[in-house]
Queue: 3 jobs
Job 1
Amino acid sequence: MSTKSSESDTETNIEAASPTNFIREIIDEDLRQGKNDGRVVTRFPPEPNGYLHIGHAKSICLNFGIARDYNGACNLRFDDTNPTKESTEYVQSIRDDVRWMGFEFEKREFYASNYFENLYSFAEVLIQKGLAYVDSLNAEEIRAFRGTLKEPGKESPDRNRSIEENLDLFRRMRAGEFKDGEYVLRAKIDMASPNMTMRDPTLYRIRHVEHHRTGDTWCIYPMYDFTHCLSDSLEGVTHSLCSLEFQDNRALYDWVVANADAPCRPQQIEFARLNLSYTVLSKRRLIQLVEEKLVNGWDDPRMPTLQGLRRRGYTPEAIREFCDRIGVAKADSMVDAALLDFCLREDLNDRAPRVMAVLRPLKVVIENYPEDQVDEFEMPYHPEDESMGKRVVPFSKVLYIEQDDFREDPPKKFFRLAPGKEVRLRYAYYITCTDVIKNGAGEVVELRCTYDPATKGGWSEDGRKVKGTLHWVSAAHAVKAEVRLYDKLFTKENPMDFDEGGDFKDFINPDSIEVLPECLLEPSLADTPPEAKVQFERLGYFCADTRDCKPGAPVFNRITTLRDTWARIERSQNKS
RNA sequence: UGGGGUGUCGCCAAGUCGGUAAGGCAACGGGUUUUGGUCCCGUCAUUCGAGGGUUCGAAUCCUUCCACCCCAGCCA
C-alpha cells in the first residue's frame, strides 16, 4: 500500500493533479473565456490494429488526466475505420490495458464504426453542397495527379461531375455495385494547396471486406480525416489531442467539421509523441520484433508494450508517474529510460516486500554450528514499514550465499566475504571465512566458516564493526526457482538512428535476457502468486511471472536492479 | 522563398506584461544505515541554435541565418 502524499493543502481536492503544460494552459484560457459552456471533453482514440505501448500510455494519461482534473470526461474511442487491419482481439487488449493503467470508461466507450450511418449522411451533405465528388481515377492516377511537395497537383477529370451524378454514384458505391478501387469519394478543396492534405483528400473508399463489428453491412469505409473530426464532434469532444504528425491535417479537420454541418467544432491540439531511449515504439518495428521471433511475443517482458511492461513487473502507478514527469510539449524529444526506471524504483521501494534469494549459489558450511540445529529468525518485510509484517526464515549449518559476495583476493573497498574476513548474514549471525574449497579446475565451490553465537540477530554487543551484510538462504529449506534477468532490449540509445548505417535489429542487446534455472529462494516464496512483486534484498525487484509461475515452482522476472554503488566503484577501480 | 512545426544544462522541461535562467532524471561529493538499497545534505547553464539590432536592461521584441522533425496512403 502506498504511504505517499497526504492531502493537498487548499483549494484542490483533486488527488494528484498533474503538472501543467501548454495544453492545460489553452484549456484554462478557453474556460476563462467561457468556451464550450465550461465543459472539457477529451478522447483517447486508438485504432484496434495492435497492442498499446508506453507511448500510448502518455496519451492515455494526458487525456484521462485532463478529464479528471477539469471535472470533464474522456472517451475511449476505437478508430476502427479500416477493417483490413483491425480485430476484436486488439480491442479487447486495449480495453484491458486502459483499465490496467487505472482509468475508467464504462459509460464512455465508443466506436467510430457506430457512426458509419451518421458519417454517410455527412458525406451526402458535402456532396449536396458541391464539396465532394466521386472520382474514378485509380490509386496510381490519384497519386500522379496530386503533384509533389513543390509542384501543384492537377484536377481530376471527374472533379466537376454534377451533384446528382455524384449522389447517384455514391449511393451505388454504398449499395455494393462497384468493385474495390473502382471509385472513391473525394473532398473538393484545392489541388494547388501547399498543404498536401488539402489536395482533394479521399473521404471514402470501397472495401468489400468484413468489419469486426459491422460485419458485411458496409462495403465503403470512411477515411481517418473524415471520420476522426466528425466522431469528435458527434461526441462533443472539446479538445482533440493528437501527435505532431497531424499538424497539417488540422486544416482538413477544421474544413470537414465546418462544411459538413457538424454539431460542434472541437479544437485539435498537437503534442510530441514519446520516444524512449534503448527501445523502439513504432508499431512496425514492434511487429517485426515479434514476427521475427527476436522476442517471445507481444507480452515479452522486454517489450515496451503495456502487456510486456506489466508482465515484466512495471506498475501502472510508476508508469503514470513517469508520464506526469516527462511533461507535454511540442519539441521532438527522446526521454531517458533511466527516468522510467527511477519512477519504478520509487514506487516499488515503498511497496515491495523484502525477501532473500540467492541467484548464483555458493555453498557455505558453518563448521561450529550444530548439525541438526535450526534457528528461526523473524524478519520484517520492510525496514521502514512495519505494517507490512514479518515472516520467519530458517537458518542452519549449510547455507548458500551469492557467488559475487565472496572474493578469494578482494579488491580495495570490497567489504564482503573473503578468507579470514568477518561479515554479517542479514538478521542472523556474524560469520568468518576460515577455509576455501576448490574443485579440480581451481574454482571455488565451497566455503568453510565459523559463526559467533553471541551475534544472534545480526549484531554484536561489543560494538564490533562489520561492514558487509550478505543475504543468504538455508540449503535444507531453500525453494528452487527459475529467475530471468532482463536488461535493455537495445544497446543503442536510439536504435532508429542509422547515421552509421545498419538496421535497428543490429542494435539488439544479445544479453537482454539471461535465464538462471537453479536459484534458491527463502521458503516463504514457495507459493508466490503470479504478478506479485518483491525485492530480493541487495539484488533488485522481481515479479512472479504470469505465465510460468506455479505454486511450489516459482518463476521470477527481474523488473529492475537496485542502484549498485559497488558496481560503480569497481568499474572506476578497473579503469585506473 | 512548397507548406507545417521545433530549437533553454548529458536527458526531459518551466520561463504569462522584456527586469537579470524553476524543477525532475542522470552525474558527482558528503552524512545516516543490519540491503554498497532507502533517506538526508551539497555541487551541477554568466547562459537560452548562431549573428546582428532595439533597450538602462532580452531566453523573452525586431532581423538575418543555421539545424532538426512532419507532409506527395484508396493507413491512422
Job 2
Amino acid sequence: MDEKYFPESIEQKWQQHWEQTKAFQATDDDPRPKFYCLEMLPYPSGFLHMGHVRNYSIGDALAWYKRLQGFNVLHPIGWDSFGQPAEQAAIKRGVNPRDWTEENIALMRGQFKRLGISYDWSREIAAHRPDYYKWDQWFFLKMYERGLAYKKKSPVNWCPKESTVLSNEQSSGGVCWRCGAEVEKRDLEQWFLRITEYAGQLVDHIKQIESSWPEKVLKRQRDWVGRSEGAYIDFPVKNSDKKIRVFTTRIDTIFGATAIVLSAEHPLIDELLEASPLKDEVMAFARKVKSEKATRGRIVEEEEQKEGINTGVLALNSFSGESIPVWVANYVLLEYGTGAVMSVPAHDERDFEFAQKYSLPIRRVIERISHEQESIVHDPLSADQSIAMPHAFTDYGILVNSGDWSGKLSQDAIVEMAKYAAEHGFGEAAVTYRIRDWGVSRQRFWGAPVPIIYCEKCGMEAVPEKDLPVQLPDHAEFTGSGESPLAGVADFVNTTCPKCGGEAKRDTDTMDTFVDSSWYFFRYCDPKNDSAAFDPAVAKQWTPVDQYIGGDSHAVMHLIYTRFWTKFMRDIGLVSFDEPVKKLLTQGMVTNRVEGTDEWKAMSKSLGNGVDPDEMIAAFGADAARLFILFAAPVENELRWSETGIEGAVRFLRRVYTMVWRWHERLSNNAGVSPGQNSTGESNGESSAGARALRRKTHQTIAKVTSDFEELHLNTIVAALMELFNEFGDFNADPGTASAGDVFAVREALESLVLMLAPFSPHIAEEMWEKLGHKGGLLQSARWPQADPELARCEELEIPIQVNGKLRSRVLAAPEVTEAELRTAALNDEKIRSLIEGHEVVKVIVVPQRLVNVVLR
RNA sequence: GCCGGAGUGGCGAAAUUGGUAUACGCACCAGACUCAAAAUCUGGCGAGGUCAAACUCAUGUCGGUUCGAGUCCGACCUCCGGCACCA
C-alpha cells in the first residue's frame, strides 16, 4: 500500500486476486440462505456505455451487501448475443457474425473486469452458442407439441429498414423498437407462440408481485394484456342463416344499437354480400381501407376520419326484436374482439361520431342517475329521442327505453342481460384481451433456427430432440434482402424427413432473440448441463430471482415474455412457481447533453454524446466512477451526466484512504476485534467525548445504511458514509497519543466505513481492509457491521420549541426526559417566556423526543 | 384525448411518513499553505433585512384541514413518460 491513492494499481491488484481465488463463484448445495441478484444481460455491441455501468454497479452493490450479510449470492452474467447488429455488420462489412460477436464479447468482458463487477464468471453464457440455443429449440418443440407454437399466415409488422418481421411488442406505437422506422403490414406465414393462452394469468398473477415491481411497469403490462369484461352477442342476419357475433362491454346499451359495424377485413363480408347488388361497391370500399392500413402501418398522426358504407344487409337485435343495418367501416379493428361491433351512438364516442357523419339514428337508452336522490335526472337535450346530443353519454346510469330492462342500473343490467342472452342462445358473458400471440419468426440468419422440417409427403415435422441443436451454418450470403439468408444455404436447407427419411427442407427462419432472454437466468443455475435446459432440482435452489435490475424499456417486451415463459415452464413441470422475479428495479437512464442542443438524451454513439467507461476508469478509477454514479441520483431517476461531480467521489475516496494510512500502524499494533464480531465490546480504556461521539455516529450510520440498502436508496447511503467520515474531522485525535479508548473508536469507525464502502468501491475497500490488519480479502473474513441501538442513542437531544408553529428556541434534554419535564423546560426558556408575556397559553403540545409547540392566543 | 409520475437553493438531491426544510455532494466565495499556481486544509453559502441581531418570506400556483403541512384534501399550472379508434 502506497501512501498516496493510486486507483490503477489497487484495482489491478484486487481484480487479479479475485480472479485467482475465484472469489465470487456461487456454490450449489450451500447451507446458507441464497440470494439471486440479476441484472439484464447485455447485447454484446463491443462497448459498455454509462447506462450499463449504472445498471451493473447497482446490481454489484446489492450482491456485495448480501454477501457480507452472509448470503450465498448468485450473481451471474451472460450475453444476449443473437440479433440484428451482428448481421448488419456482416451485410455492411462482410465479417462473419460469429467472429464479430465473439470479439465483442471479449472486449466487453474486459470492461466488466476493469470495472471490478463481482460476477461468477464460471457461469457465463452466450445465446449464440449451440449449447445454449439448443434449448431455445427444445422449448419451441415443447410448445409445438402442446399446440402453443403454431404457424399461420397473417398480417404482420414488417420493418422495411431491417427487412424483418417484428412482434407487436417490438412495434408498439407503429415504429420499430430498434431502429425507429415506421412499420408496415405484410401478409406472411409466421410462427406464433400462444401467449394469449396465458393472458388471464399474466393479469391475475400481478397480484403476486404488485408490491415489489414498479407500478409503472405493472400498469403498462396490464394495459398491454388489456383484459376487458363484457359479452358476445349474436345478431342473426336477415334472409340468411349467418349470424354476426359482436363483443361489447356495454350490453346494457343494446337497445340503443342502431347499426352493426364490421371491420373491412371481416371474413363474413364476402358471404353476406353474395347476392347483393351493392357487392362491388362494398368490396371496393373494403379493399381501399385495407390498402390504406397496409401502407400506413400503425401510425395515426391525428385521429383518422371515420368512413363506412351501408351493405344493405339487415341484422336482428334479439333483445329488441328490431332489425338494424349492417355497415362496414374503417374504425373497427379486426384484431380485437370479434371484428364487429354494435354501434350505439348515444353512448359511445366513436359510434356517435360515425352516426353523425352518416345520419344514423341516435337513440338514448341510459340516463344519468343522481346518487343523492336515487332518481333519474333528465337531460333536456335528450327529451326528444331523435334530437342529437352534443356528445355521447358514456357513463353508467339507469336504463330507459329498453323494454323490460328499463329502470335497471347499468351495473346490474350488464350481468343480467348477458345471462339472459346465454339462456336464450344468442350470446354469453366473455372476457377478451388486447394482447396478441407472439410472432417469433424472423427472416434473419443470426438467431436460433426454427427446428421444423417440411416433407412433401409427411408435411410439417418437428426435428427430433436427439437431433438438436439445429446448427447455424458457418457461412451464408448476407444480402439484406427480405428472405432469410438461411434459404440460400443448400446444405442447411436440404435434409431428410425424420418420419419417412425422404428428401425434405428445413424451416429457414430463426427465432426472435427475445426467446433467448425469456429463460436465460434459469440456465445460469446449471449452465453446463448438456442433457437439459437446466436441472429443475438445481434451479429450485436459486430461483425465483430475488432482485432483478434493468431498464424499463423492456416493460412490455422481455418482462412480459419471461413471465409467459415461466408459466409455460411451470406447466411442463420445470419450475413450481408462477412468477420468475420477486423484486424488480428499473433504473433511470443515463443521459448526456446532445452537443449543440439543450436536449438530454440517452448516451449513444450515433448522437455523439456517449462517454466511454474506459476513459472514466483511466482518469478516475473504477471505484470512483462507480461511487459517483450511485451517489449522483436515486437509482430510479434519470441521471444527467456531468464530469464535475466525479471528482468529488475521487476526493472522498482519497480522504478515506489517507485517514486509513494515518491510523493503520497504530491500529494494526492494536489489532482488536472487528466490529461485526463484537460491536458492543467494551472499549477497554477511557473514552473521550469525541470518541463517544464517533462511536455514536458509527452506529447511527450502520443502522441507516443497512435500512437504506433494503430499499436500494444507494445515494443516501453514500451521503451517510460521507457524514460518518466527516465526524473524523471533529474528532481529530492523534494516532501517536490517542488513548486505547480513542483507538478503539477509530478502529470501529474505520472498519465499519470500509465494510460499508465495499459495495460501492470494492477495490479500495479491499486494500484498506488489508491495511487495517485483515488478511485474505474482505469476503473471507468480514461480516456486515451490526448497529448497537444503545451506542447509537444520543446523550442529549436538542428539542425545538415552537410558538404557534414557528420555531423560536431550542432546549437541551436527556432522551428519557418526561413529557411534563419537557413542557416545563420549554415554558421556562427565557426566549419563550418573553414571547408568552401578555398572552394566554391556550395549550402546549409536547411530542416526546421531538418538539414542543406553545399555542398562544 | 385517456392513464401514470414528478415539480424543493445556481446544480444533483435530503427530510425517520404530519413535527427543526435545504443533510450529503457539485459549483461558487473567503482564508491558510505557496515566490506563484495547482493540489490540500479551514470557514462561508435559500431570499430579504441588519454593523450584528431581531424579524419577515420561501418546497409550481391558489384555497382548505391541523397546535403544526414539502408531506394530507380540493382546484389549477407546468414538465416528463406511456397508450392511442381495444367496442
Job 3
Amino acid sequence: MKEVPKKFDFTNSELKWQKFWEENRLYESHPIEGKKKYSVVIPPPNVTGILHFGHMLNNTIQDIYCRWKRMQGYEVCWVPGTDHAGIATQVMVEKELAKNGKTKYDLGREKFIELVWEWKKKNGGTIQRQLKKLGASVDWSRERFTFDEGLSLNVRKVFVDLYGKGLIYKGKRIVNWDPDSQTAVSDDEIFYQERKDKLYFIKYVLEGSDDFITIATTRPETMFGDTAVAVNPKDNRYKKFTGRKVHLPLTDRLIPVIEDDYVDMEFGTGALKITPAHDLNDFEVGQRHKLESVTVLTKDSLLNEHAGEFQGLKIDDARGKILARLKSEDLLVKVEDFVHNVAVSDRTKAVIEPYLSEQWFVSMKKLAGPAIDVVRNDKIKFYPERYKKVYFHWMENIRDWCISRQLWWGHQIPIWYHKQSGEIYCDVNPPSDTENWVQDEDVLDTWFSSWLWPLSVFGWENNENDRLNENLNYYYPTDFLSTAPEIIFLWVARMIMAGMEYKHEVPFREVYFHSTVRDGRGVKMSKTLGNYSDAIELMDKYGTDALRFTIIYLAPLGNDVLFDEEKTQIGRNFVTKLWNAGRFIMMMKEKNVFTDRLGDEIEEVDITEKWIQSRFNATLEEANRFLREYRLNDYAKTIYNFVWSEFCDWYIEFIKIDINNSPERSNAILDNAMKHYESILKVLHPVMPYVTEELWHLTGNDRDNRSISFEEFPVSDRGRIDERIETDVEKLKLLISAVRNLRTENGIEPSQKSHLYIAAPSDTKAMISKFENQILKLCNLEIFEFADKKLEGKQYASAVSGESEIYLLLNASLNTEKQSEKIAKEIDDLKRYLTTLEKKLSNESFLNKAATDVVEREKQKHAESKEKLNKLLRLNQNN
RNA sequence: GGGCGGUUAGCUCAGUUGGUUAGAGUGCUACGUUGACAUCGUAGAGGUCAUUGGUUCGAAUCCAUUACCGCCCACCA
C-alpha cells in the first residue's frame, strides 16, 4: 500500500502513464497464431488537423472498444495515421507562400511539393501528440500516412487495375469547378448556401420577325454559351416558335428553339436558355438534342473570347455591363428578386462554377452491387441501424466518381501520353523511355487513397501470397469502424466497395456512426462560427479522463451531443468521487490495527457483502451488455450510478459501521471492499484510462510493471444476484430516508441523538433487526425498539415506510399542524391512487382481458396501499 | 421537393416486446464542515410525457395527423 495523495494530480499522472504505455510498447500488436484478434483502423485525420471535439469523441469511442477487447484477451491492433488531404493541405501551404507575395507557380510543381513535405514535417505532428494526450491506445509502430510509399503504390495499383477493367474513363463532363483553387471538386466537397439574387428576364428575338421569347436567368453572363432556347413540349404558348431560330442577344449568332420535358412551364416564363457548358442540366439537354457546348469562362472565371467585347472581365463586372447593354437595346424586360441555393466549395468557400472539362471518372455501378449486398445481409452492421437506409438510397442511385483534381499535392495520375503519337500508357511505374512521354498533370482525389485504408495499412501492396502479408491475413477484415455520419458516402461506402472488389471480403464488420457534437444551444461546433471549445484546453483544465467520461456520458447512440464546458463537471466530480472512495478504503486499511483475519467467512454471512455483490454483478451484466450494444452512454451511466449511489452512498457507509461494531473482522471486510473497488477500476478503465491506472498502481504493491489495461474485464456472476436481499436493502434505505426526513422536518439537530419506535409485521421486524447497527448509526439514534410498548403520553413524530410505522420521539414540542398536514396530503394522494386501482379492479374487461399476472400485481398493489392508508389514518388520529 | 431522426422536470437525457402514483443527473431551495469526498452530505420543490384524433380493459410507449427543431439527399433556370 502506498501513500495516497489527497487529490488526483491528473497533469502528472497523464504524462507518467503515457510514458509508461509507450516505453513498454504495451499497445503494439503482432499477429499471434491461434489468438483471437480485434483490429481497428483510425479514420485518418488531415495531416494539417488539430484535435476537435468530433475527434475526441470518435477516438474515445474507439479507445473504449480497444481497451475493452484487450481486457477480454483479444490481440488488439488499432492502427493510427493521417491523410494527406489534397486541397486542405495545399491551400494551407499556398497561404504561407502568399504571405511572402509568392504563388506556387513561382516555385514550380516539384519545388512546391518539396515545400509541402517540409511543412508537414514541421507542423504535421500535432494531432498525433493530441491523440497521445487523449490516451488513445493505438499501435504507434504502425502509423501510416496516405502518401507513404506503400500506400501510394496501392493507389496506382488500383488505378491501373480499374483502368484495365474499363472502369476508369476520361470524359468531358460538367464538374464542380472551384475557381479559387482552380480544381474540380466532387459533389461531396461542396455545400449549398441560400443567396439573395436577381432573376433577369431577357428578350430573344425571333429570326425574321419582331416577335420574341422572353427567358428568365440568374446568369446573364453565360448567354454567350447559349446554344438553344428550350420550352416544354406541352406548352402551347410557344408552339409557334419551336423549330425556328432566335437571335442570341449581343451577338450575331442564331440558336434554335427546342422542346424538352425538363423545362418547367410554371417557372419564370416557361422558356429556358440552354448553356450546356455551364450547367449540368443544360448539358444533359444538350446531349439529348446534340447541341454544341460553348465554354465562355476561363479556369479562373473570366469571360473568354466568346464573350466578344466583354472578354477578360470578371463575372460580376461582366454581368453589370451586359445588363446595361441589354437595357440600352431594349432587350431587358424586367428584374425580380430571387432566392436560390448557390453551390460553394467546402474548402475555399468560393462559389462553384459548373464547368465543362476533361476529367477522370470511376464508373461506380458495378462496384456498388456487392457493397449493397453485404450491408443488406448484415455482413456489415450499422449502428444506429437507420443509416442503412441512407446508404442504400445513395448506393442504388450512385453516380460516377470524378477522381481527378487539378492540384499538385496528391497522387499524380499514373497515365502517360506519348508526346508524338498521343498514345496512352497506364502503369504503376513510368515508361522506361521518359523522354517521349509526359505524365497526366492531374492528381487523384484524396478519397482515392482513403478508400483503400483498411487494406493499405496492413501492407496490401505486398504480394497477396507473400508471408509479408501475414498482417493483412491476420487483421483483415477489421472488426470495428467508428466514424462521423457525414462521411458515410465519401469514405465508408467506398471502403466497402474497395474491400469487396479487391479482397472479396468486407473491410470491417461493425460500423458505429457517432454523434455530432454541438454547443449548448444545439448549433454544430465549428471554428468559423466561433462556438468552438478547444478540446485540448479543456483536457488541461479538467483532466482527460473527466472530459472523456463526460462526452461519453452525454452521447447517446444516434443522437447529437450538446456540449457545454459546464458539463465537464460531471466527469470531473466523478473522477474525484472515485479517487476519494479508493483513498478512504486504503486509509482504513492503513489504520487498521488488527492483523489477524478473523471472519474470513464474511462473504457467506454478511448481508452487506451479499448485497453489494448482488448489485455489482447486476451492474456488470448491464455494463457488458451496453458495451456489446454500442450504448456507451448507458455503460457510463450504469457504472456512475453504481459507484456513486450504491458503492459510496451505502456500501461504504455500511462497512464503516460493520468495522466499528466488529473491529476484529475489519481485515476481511476491507479486503472485500478493496476487491470490489479494484473491479470497479477495471470496469471503468476503458473510459477513464489514466485515473484507473493510477489507482490500480496505488492499491497494489506488486504492480510496478503491470498495467491495468491487460487485467481481465469483470463479467457478471449471475449466481451472486440475490433479489431477496436487494429488496430487503431497498426497504431498509426507504426506512432510513423516512427517519432522516422526520428528523429534518422536526428540526432535530444532526448531532442530536434520538429515540425511535417501529411497529411492523413480524417478518419485517426480523429484517429490520438484522440492520440494527446501520439504522442506529445512519439515523443517529441512541436507541430503536419495536413499538410494543405504549406510546401514550409521549411526544413523537410519525410516518409510514413500507409495512412499518415509525415513531420518532421528540423532546421539544411537536409542530403537530405541519405533521398532520403532511400526513393528510399523503392520505389524499393514496386515496386517489386507490380509486384508480379500484376502478381498474372492478372493470370486467380488465379482469377478463388483462394477463393474470398483471391482475395479480394490481390486486397486490391495492392490498398494500389499503394497509398503508389504514396506518396513515391511525397516525392522523393519534395526532 | 424527397427521406430520416427528435420533441418527457429550468437544462441534458433514461423510460427496448403497452400494465409505475413517469425516473436519473445537473441546476434550484433549506439545513449541515465531529475523520474519504463542500468537486461533499441530508432533505425538499419541480412534469397535462409537443398537438389532435384513433386502436386498446389500459398509451409517454402502437397507428395517423399537425406544429416546431435538427440532419441527409436532390437542386428548378
